[in-house]
Amino acid sequence: LRLRGDSALALLRLGIAYAALGRLDEAAELLKRSAVRDPRAPEPWEHLAGVERRRGRLPEAIQAAQAVCA
Fold this sequence. Notes:
Layout: H1 8-20, H2 24-37, H3 43-54, H4 58-69
Helix pairs in contact: 1-2, 1-3, 2-3, 3-4
């Protein structure tokens, strides 16, 4: 399996990895890019909600969580 570096799945996985490392700013950016690449996928929004919560950005966390249900 080969992934393009700018594919939604690659961006999602890298964002999750950065979040696990505590690199929350980079994680948020990658997860947002993943969501743009695949707007119907709920996973980037789910992870972004958690990252934004960890960053103390509750309005953004709520907005990301609501995007999962949209």
